[in-house]
Structure formats: structure tokens, C-alpha cells
Specification:
The protein is mostly helical and 482 residues long. It is built from 17 helices and twelve strands. Strands 5-4-9 form a three-stranded antiparallel β-sheet, covered by helices on one side.
């Protein structure tokens, strides 16, 4: 582990060197060679674009909690499904998974500590008990790499976990992170040794091993530096150029003594510092210095496109402006595909299943039916309402162009627009029409006073029926006879 770190630091120190090491591009441009989890954390907290890069995929991945499915029958809740539902309700597990995912992006890995009742500081170094009750799982805690150190690896080649961590050292146990007076006044906990069985190790972007992933800000760090230079330099240039400055030219045909010149200087300085709005002097000609205001938009867009290419986050999603623009529909679809892949290739096998399997192994959760369960994620709606309408219009012209029925009206309603079949709406309209006819016939047979009151009630009933028809036609609903 130590030799691997030395090798990586040596590689990082040679980054940016060209011409056989004679030219240091990183040094000339002010880029850091070696980045630490503390660097990533600081930039994440202070830089809005960095925050967006770190959080975009995790928040999209864990948005709308998933479910553990042990039986395909939705009416039947198995012991595993019931126990998981109760545990999730008590500990809010899906948001905890999202937090550890974000922390994993601020370094090479993060860990989720499983808190079991009865554990003390010294016993955390021991493996989890063979069995414990679900009620004994009392908390989870996420730690980023800056608060975690792997102090011991499993070195036995015959062990199935060969080369993976055996003992972790955790800092900040029970102490909140931050810079407020309360948080900085709290005593720091000493490092606590924790056995791997109490830890869910989370690393995104694994390549060389199963321990260290790729920090999400690493390959865009230089571009974020460039963005700071452009935005900060452009702001400073605007500040300097907005107040363009003046030249005071004294008339050479007049006699000027030191007192006159000093008086002009004092008035000019007071004007510059907004202590006066006028200058009263004879023989002084003021000229405004011209300058151009810096335009940084094109440079910022170029950097954002480079960041988008490196992270796989479309520019419109990176900047939060993708909604309402049909031109971004392909970007949105590609992004949703990546989120879906991330759920099945990272979130489920690296975070959710290790957690569930660990609790099943120690009998805190019941075993799954046939020893198999599924992690079901909410569907990602790739189209907004305007995009659905656009697709529906295009599909509606297919039959006319083909000269035959390729797609039916109900297929468009149910498959694209998410509306109920038209037969349901027609049936409801027909039933309401029959009910209205019966009501009108009854009113005709009533006495005048009773008929007037019934007619008022009928107006309310008609309005209610109309609202019901509109609801069914636009959002769907159960059919009612009336």
C-alpha cells in the first residue's frame, strides 16, 4: 500500500513536465501537482461548479428511494421486505447511501460505519457478532477519506478478501465537521480502530484495485483553476475599467503656483473617493480615459465544455439550465442512461447489496426467498411534458405517411403521454350523459319550486361531472358509474 502511494506521488510530481523535464507547464500555469482529500473538500465547499460536479451523479442516482424486492407479488410483503422497510424508516438508509456516495467523490474512497448496539471504542476493532437483532442496528455514519486511514490489509493469499482492508482508523467519531464556534470548540475524538465487518467500503471508478477509486475533481482540477482565473480576472478587470479614470490638463497660458495645483489635486482626489460630485476650477480641462470592458462569456463557455467532456455531465445540466430547452433532449436522454447504468453498475453492487448482505449474514435481516432479492429503482422520466407532446405529434403523423395503421391512438396515450386509454374516458362521458338525461327527466316531473332547487343542485352535479371527466382524460383514474 505504501509503495503504491509513493509511486502515485512520484507520477503526480512529474505531471506537466515536457521537453524532457526542462519545461514545467504546471508550474508556469500555477497548477498543483499533488492533490489531497483536503484540497478536494475545500474546493467542493467553496466552488459552486465543483459542488455541482461532485453532487450531480450521486443526487440523480439516489433521487427517489429504491426498494428491496423479495417477491414479485406487490400484494405480498415478505419478512425481508418488511424488515428492510422498518429499518429504512428508522435510519433513513437511502439518504445515508447518497451522502457516502458524495464523500467517495471527494477522495479515493469513503466508508459507511454500521453502528451496532453495545459496541464500545475498543470493541469496534473486533468483528461484528455472529448474530444480532435488527433493533441493535442503531445508526450509520459516513466518513470521507480525509477522516479514514487503512491501517492493516489482509495479507493471507488464501483469504477471499486478500489485499483488502482489515482494520480502518476513523477520526471525527461522533464529532460534527465544520467551522462554527460550536463545532470547533468540541474536542476531537482520538482515532478509533474499526474492523472491516462494521464498514461498507465505497469507491467510485475502481481501476487498479478494489480500494482506491478516482476523485471526481481530479481530472478537471486544472480546468477549475482556469475558470477561477477567467471569472476572477474578468471581475477584477471590470472593476478597474468601469471607473475609467480622468486626466486633468492645466492651461499653460495661465500662471499656476503650488497652492493652485494642490487645490486641484485635492478636489480631484475628493471626486475620485466620492467625497464631492463637482469640481470648480478655471483653466483645467478634464478628459475621460477610454477603456474596453472585459468580455469573459466565450472563455467561460469553452472551459465549461471541457469540464463537461471530462465529467460526462452535459453543459446544460452542469449549469442547471437544461429544462425547457428541446435542443437539450438528447443530452438529457444520454445523462439519464448514464444514471441508470450507474445505479446497476455502482450503487447496487458497491453500496446497497454489501449493506443488505452484511445484515443478512449476521441474521439482523431475514434471508431472502430462494436466497435472492432484487434492488428496484424508480424509473427515470427522460421526457418532460413539452417533449412528450412533441413525440406524440410526430407519432400521430406516422399512420398518414405510411398509409396504414402503424401505431394506435391508445398506444400514444398510454405509452407516451401516460394517459388512460380513450375507451375509459368515452365510457365515463357516456355514463355521465345518461345520468344527466335521467336527472333532467326527473326535474321536468317536479313542481316549479322543487324543480328550481333541483336545477341548482344539477348545476353543481354537472360541474362535478365535468371536473371528473377532465381528470380522467388528463391524469387517469378509476372508472365510476353515476
Amino acid at each position: 500500500m505504501a509503495s503504491a502511494l509513493v509511486s502515485r506521488f512520484d507520477l503526480a510530481s512529474r505531471a506537466g513536465k515536457t521537453f524532457g523535464g526542462n519545461r514545467d507547464i504546471y508550474g508556469a500555469l500555477g497548477y498543483k501537482n499533488i492533490l489531497t482529500p483536503e484540497d478536494y473538500r475545500f474546493r467542493y465547499e467553496r466552488d459552486g461548479v465543483a459542488t455541482r460536479i461532485v453532487e450531480t451523479f450521486p443526487k440523480s442516482t439516489w433521487r427517489s428511494n429504491g426498494v428491496i424486492v423479495d417477491d414479485q407479488d406487490p400484494e405480498n410483503e415478505t419478512p425481508l421486505e418488511e424488515a428492510w422497510r422498518q429499518l429504512d424508516k428508522r435510519l433513513q438508509l437511502w439518504p445515508a447511501f447518497g451522502r457516502v456516495d458524495i464523500l467517495a467523490g471527494l477522495g479515493e474512497y469513503a466508508v459507511l460505519l454500521i453502528g451496532v448496539r453495545g459496541a464500545t471504542g475498543s470493541s469496534l476493532e473486533e468483528p461484528l457478532p455472529d448474530t444480532f437483532a435488527l433493533e441493535d442496528v442503531i445508526y450509520t455514519a459516513a466518513f470521507g477519506q480525509e477522516d479514514v486511514e487503512i491501517t492493516k490489509l489482509i495479507t493471507e493469499p488464501s483469504d477471499e478478501r486478500f489485499g483488502q482492508p482489515e482494520i480502518y482508523s476513523l477520526d471525527r467519531v461522533g464529532v460534527p465537521r465544520g467551522t462554527t464556534a460550536l463545532q470547533t470548540s468540541l474536542p476531537r475524538a482520538s482515532e478509533t480502530k474499526v474492523h472491516w465487518s462494521r464498514i461498507i467500503h465505497v469507491a467510485d471508478g475502481l481501476l487498479d484495485d478494489k480500494i482506491t477509486g478516482k476523485p471526481r475533481l481530479k481530472n478537471v482540477w486544472n480546468r477549475l483553476d482556469d475558470l477561477d482565473k477567467i471569472a476572477g480576472g474578468g471581475s477584477e478587470a471590470f472593476w478597474l475599467r468601469a471607473h475609467q479614470g480622468y486626466v486633468a490638463k492645466l492651461d499653460n497660458d495661465l500662471e499656476w503656483d503650488d497652492g493652485d495645483i494642490k487645490d486641484v489635486q485635492e478636489q480631484v482626489e475628493e471626486f475620485a473617493h466620492q467625497l464631492r460630485r463637482t469640481i470648480g476650477q478655471r483653466g483645467v480641462d478634464f478628459t475621460v480615459l477610454g477603456s474596453d470592458v472585459a468580455e469573459i462569456g466565450g472563455n467561460v463557455d469553452a472551459i465549461l465544455r471541457l469540464i463537461s467532456a471530462s465529467t460526462g455531465i452535459p453543459v446544460r445540466i452542469l449549469t442547471g439550465s437544461e429544462r425547457g430547452e428541446l435542443a437539450s433532449s438528447q443530452d438529457k436522454t444520454n445523462f439519464d442512461d448514464r444514471v441508470s447504468d450507474r445505479r446497476t453498475q455502482f450503487a447496487e453492487p458497491v453500496v446497497v447489496r454489501p449493506f443488505v448482505d452484511r445484515l443478512i449474514k449476521h441474521e439482523a435481516l431475514p434471508a431472502a426467498t430462494d436466497d435472492e432479492y432484487a434492488v428496484r429503482w424508480p424509473e427515470i422520466d427522460a421526457l418532460d411534458e413539452s417533449e412528450k407532446a412533441s413525440v406524440a405529434v410526430k407519432l400521430s403523423t406516422v399512420n398518414k405517411q405510411a398509409g396504414e395503421t402503424i401505431i394506435t391512438r391508445d398506444e400514444i396515450r398510454t405509452g407516451v403521454l401516460g394517459l388512460p386509454p380513450s375507451a375509459e374516458v368515452d365510457e365515463l362521458v357516456e355514463a355521465d350523459a345518461e345520468a344527466a338525461a335521467r336527472t333532467e327527466a326527473m326535474i321536468d316531473q317536479m313542481a316549479p319550486g322543487e324543480a328550481d332547487a333541483a336545477a341548482e343542485d344539477e348545476e353543481l352535479i354537472a360541474a362535478s361531472r365535468l371536473a371528473r371527466v377532465v381528470q380522467i382524460a388528463t391524469h387517469g383514474g378509476s372508472k365510476k358509474k353515476g
